[in-house]
């Protein structure tokens, strides 16, 4: 029961021991403890500042990466656009060249056809002329076979001349 109802002497000595303990702590331990707490606080603040700097640097790196990505995309788009232009030019050139070759072939074919047509027409004219001469020769022989037919032909030609 002594612990529940302390006596004044016990209370006095406990207070003295407590004050001595606080004095010793203040003299020897308090400054190193406060120094350690201050060092810990400084290291935490330094770590927080470093983390903030790292976060800002990461944001800058992300912004730089985004900028590089945009530049790469723009360059890619420019290259693709240039490739499309070159493709269209090559296709247009090939088409124009093919059209020119086709026109040349058509022109050559027309010349060949015209030459063959002219040759055929000339040959037909020669054959018609030959046939006409042969027919005329047969008719003239028939018409001039007798003296009387010759006389009638001369009179008919004279009548035609005088009428015109």
UniProtKB/TrEMBL annotation:
Q: Which UniProt keywords apply?
A: ATP synthesis, Cell membrane, CF(0), Coiled coil, Hydrogen ion transport, Ion transport, Membrane, Transmembrane, Transmembrane helix, Transport
> How does this chain sit within the bilayer?
Single-pass membrane protein
Q: Which CDD domains match?
A: ATP-synt_Fo_b
Q: What are this entry's molecular-function GO terms?
A: proton-transporting ATP synthase activity, rotational mechanism; proton-transporting ATPase activity, rotational mechanism
Any matching Pfam family: ATP-synt_B
User: Where do the TM regions start and end?
Assistant: 12-30
Compartments reported by the entry: Cell membrane; Endomembrane system
* Source superkingdom: Bacteria
Any single GO CC term annotated in Swiss-Prot or TrEMBL for this entry = proton-transporting ATP synthase complex
Q: Which InterPro entries match?
A: ATP_synth_B-like_membr_sf, ATP_synth_b/b'su_bac/chlpt, ATP_synth_F0_bsu_bac, ATP_synthase_B_chain
Extract the coiled-coil ranges from the record.
44-89
Assembly state and interactors? F-type ATPases have 2 components, F(1) - the catalytic core - and F(0) - the membrane proton channel. F(1) has five subunits: alpha(3), beta(3), gamma(1), delta(1), epsilon(1). F(0) has four main subunits: a(1), b(2) and c(10-14). The alpha and beta chains form an alternating ring which encloses part of the gamma chain. F(1) is attached to F(0) by a central stalk formed by the gamma and epsilon chains, while a peripheral stalk is formed by the delta and b chains.
Q: What does this protein do?
A: Component of the F(0) channel, it forms part of the peripheral stalk, linking F(1) to F(0). The b'-subunit is a diverged and duplicated form of b found in plants and photosynthetic bacteria.
Provide the family line.
Belongs to the ATPase B chain family.
Question: Which NCBIfam families does the protein's record reference?
Answer: ATP_synt_b (TIGR01144), PRK14471.1 (NF011041)
The name of this protein is ATP synthase subunit b
Species annotation: Antarcticibacterium arcticum
Q: Which gene encodes it?
A: atpF
């Amino acid at each position: 029961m002594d612990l529940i109802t302390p006596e004044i002497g016990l209370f006095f000595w406990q207070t003295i021991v407590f004050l001595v303990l606080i004095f010793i702590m203040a003299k020897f331990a308090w400054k190193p403890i406060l120094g350690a707490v201050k060092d810990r606080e400084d290291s935490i603040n330094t770590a927080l500042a470093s983390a903030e700097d790292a976060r800002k640097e990461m944001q800058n790196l992300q912004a730089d990466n985004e900028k590089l990505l945009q530049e790469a995309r723009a360059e890619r788009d420019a290259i693709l656009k240039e490739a499309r232009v070159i493709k269209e030019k090559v296709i247009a050139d090939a088409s124009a060249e093919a059209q020119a070759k086709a026109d040349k072939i058509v022109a050559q074919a027309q010349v060949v056809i015209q030459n063959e047509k002219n040759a055929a027409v000339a040959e037909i004219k020669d054959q018609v002329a030959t046939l006409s001469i042969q027919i005329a020769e047969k008719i003239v022989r028939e018409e001039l076979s007798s003296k009387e037919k010759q006389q009638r032909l001369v009179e008919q030609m004279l009548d035609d001349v005088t009428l015109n």
